[in-house]
Write a structure and sequence with these properties.
The protein is an alpha+beta fold and 538 residues long. It contains 18 helices and 21 strands. Helix 4 crosses helix 9. This is Phospholipase D family protein.
């Protein structure tokens, strides 16, 4: 028995060694990054004559009437945000540049893939840049797309082990812990969509489990051109690899077209297809009747060298989005309203907000409650700074998990005044905040991918637009004044130092002495996470 036990241990040891060596070999190095044309046709969007595109001809007169400014339209309604992307792809004549952190293989994901495919079939040069951490299950689809002569797919900071994705983090954590969180959708270098939404049912109001409260903007003119320049910087960066070098190449057009047809035929997709028929905003953009808000815009974006760990707080801060954002804006003088789903300000951020309050600036922050948060560890990081923020005079609000259904379209508050309120497509039973926006003095507004947390500041790459427009910024301020009390808990500090969550209901004020909607096990888990040294990753 002893001899057999020793032999068994030796066999297990040998198996472990083989597996471990295989893992190291798989992650030993990424393939050579071959230089390819800027687009599948060798055509740069920056060289396209606007007069040769429908979008260019549509926006040029308004741009001439507003020199140096961009036209902006807020997309707070989830179904409209979905339709806007698909219809913008349909309006493209020459180029499409698409960059995302998450792309789901669900209804909206495949309808969006089909929109890119149809554009390529018309001769549009399509570039798709995806962060590779969320592409599980999509390799076959990406291979088929990449095989199209007018589509090029690149994977950002890719994983080499496709079937055991978590093992990549075991062997190459320091590299893979940096992700591309940018989100943009740009047609013909003339119109772009920038904001907080990824591609997936939960972002477009059709998930049955959760609906993300989010915000994007369509922007024209200088804003679109700046996004194109940023896209090319990422497309040609050292972290962007041609998909074929990671997942191989295969022209499986037939299987992909069958998947498109199956998606369209499914009754669950009918809601999305109806939203395409109902949404007029891209047609209005082409007809020059879309009610754009005009103002100067500044794109703030991380240098992709951040992914390689080459930038930090002390060296290269001017190339980090956080530093660029501070340079792009002047400090608020009267008011600062912040909406962020993942709020881990750290000591520096907490002091910055406290300093604003000391300077007589009213600071209001909306983030997720424990019940509405989709990342418990981040809530644990936020909870550590809650009392310090309240003691400094910052006003804190936490989103309720269950929201009034008819006002869900107003999340973000930057919708034009005449936009009707609409129900979301899916009728999900719970909500989670995902918008990343802030307004200053009712004059400027930021919309983008940047969360007010340590991960956005130092690990992931981010992007967003600072927009000088009092109507857009004022709508966010008004939303905090009028609509927020019904949608969020007001967190206050009581005389004994404990926290209280105040809820406004139809029957009056309700006060909670524990995090609303959470049980003791969840609260205990948050408490445990709060003592772990993980804030730098949150």
């Amino acid at each position: 028995m002893a001899i057999r036990g020793v032999q068994g241990m030796g066999s297990l040891r040998n198996i472990f060694v083989v597996v471990w060596v295989g893992m190291l070999a798989a992650c030993a190095g990424l393939p050579p990054r071959d230089e390819l044309p800027v687009t599948p046709q060798g055509l740069s969007p920056t060289t396209v004559d606007p007069a040769t595109t429908r979008l260019g001809r549509a926006v040029t007169p308004d741009l001439a009437a507003h020199p140096g400014q961009a036209g902006v339209y807020a997309l707070s309604d989830a179904s409209e945000a979905f339709a806007a992307r698909v219809l913008l792809a349909g309006a493209a004549d020459r180029t499409l540049d698409v960059q995302y952190y998450i792309w789901r293989g669900d209804y909206t994901g495949y309808l969006m893939f089909e929109a890119l495919w149809q554009a390529a079939e018309r001769g549009v040069s399509v570039r798709l840049l995806l962060d590779d951490t969320n592409t599980a299950g999509l390799d076959d689809t990406l291979r088929a797309l990449d095989a199209h002569p007018n589509i090029a797919v690149r994977l950002y900071n890719p994983m080499t082990m496709r079937s055991a994705r978590l093992l990549n983090f075991v062997t190459d954590f320091s590299r893979l812990n940096h992700r591309m969180h940018n989100k943009s959708f740009t047609a013909d270098n003339q119109a772009t969509i920038v904001g907080g939404r990824n591609i997936g049912d939960e972002y477009f109001g059709a998930s049955k489990s959760v609906g993300f409260e989010d915000l994007d903007v369509i922007a024209t003119g200088p804003a679109a051109k700046d996004v194109t320049v940023s896209f090319e910087e990422y497309w040609n960066s050292a972290s962007a690899y041609p998909a074929a070098s990671i997942i191989g190449s295969e022209d499986s057009r037939k299987a992909l077209l069958e998947r498109f047809a199956e998606t369209r035929a499914d009754e669950g997709a009918e809601q999305y297809l109806q939203s395409l028929r109902d949404t007029k905003l891209v047609r209005e953009l082409l007809a020059q009747t879309l009610p754009l808000r005009w103002g100067e815009t500044r794109l703030v974006v991380d240098d992709p060298a951040k992914t390689l760990g080459q930038l930090n707080a002390n060296e290269g801060r001017e190339r980090l989005m956080l530093g660029r954002l501070m340079t792009a804006i002047t400090p608020p003088q009267k008011s600062f309203e912040l909406i962020t789903p993942y709020f881990v300000p750290g000591k520096e951020g907490t002091e910055s907000l406290a300093a604003l309050v000391r300077n007589k600036v009213r600071v209001r922050v909306l983030t997720n409650s424990l019940a509405s948060s989709d990342v418990t560890a981040v809530h644990a990081g936020y909870a550590e700074y809650r009392k310090a923020l309240l003691q400094a005079g910052v006003e804190l609000y936490e989103l309720k998990r269950h929201l009034p259904p008819l006002v869900a379209a107003e999340a973000g508050g930057a919708a034009p005044e005449d936009k009707p309120k609409r129900k979301t497509l899916g009728g999900s039973s719970s909500a989670s905040l995902h918008a990343k926006t802030f307004a200053m003095d009712g004059q400027r507004i930021f919309v983008g991918s940047f969360n007010f947390d340590q991960r956005s500041a130092w690990l992931n790459t981010e992007m967003g637009l600072v927009i000088d427009n009092a109507q857009l910024a004022g709508r966010l301020t008004d939303w905090f004044d009028k609509d927020l009390p019904a949608r969020a808990y007001h967190v206050v500090l009581q005389d004994d130092g404990s926290l209280c969550w105040i809820e406004q209901t139809e029957k009056g004020e309700v006060r909670h002495d524990k995090e609303p909607g959470s049980g003791p096990m969840l609260r205990g888990w948050v408490k445990f996470l709060s003592i772990l040294p993980i804030e730098w990753m949150l």
